[in-house]
């Protein structure tokens, strides 16, 4: 009988970039779940206006996303000013990703007649690769990241 978990783990060990991308997606999915949970909780249970709840949820999930990607996905150990520099780069990548995501959703939905949910799927897929690439090669750039040793 094939142990798929062992096969997958061996595949990840042999393909470090793919492993890093999988970790990035896990962090992103977890961050999205945190974002929604906070957004819903603050809006429904605390009675805060949904726009303010969205801002609070975004900020909290962005901090989690940054720290998890820095420490787990990219194994980056920079601290102090280097970390503040990374945080500003991370914010730039996130904001550019948000702009690209929103533009893709708008164009696919309003110009090409796609269902807005399908537009979201396409946009999220494209922006995931955008965010991963820029965070890997720019935000958390480190020789270990680049060589994947």
UniProtKB/TrEMBL annotation:
Residues 23-140 form the GtrA/DPMS transmembrane domain. The chain crosses the membrane at residues 21-42, 48-68, 89-108, 120-138. It is a multi-pass membrane protein. It comes from the Bacteria. Coiled coil: none annotated. It is found in: Membrane. Keywords: Membrane, Transmembrane, Transmembrane helix. InterPro entries: GtrA_CellWall_Glycosyl (IPR051401), GtrA_DPMS_TM (IPR007267). GO terms for biological process: polysaccharide biosynthetic process. GO terms for cellular component: plasma membrane. Belongs to the GtrA family. This is GtrA/DPMS transmembrane domain-containing protein. It comes from Candidatus Buchananbacteria bacterium RIFCSPHIGHO2_01_FULL_39_14.
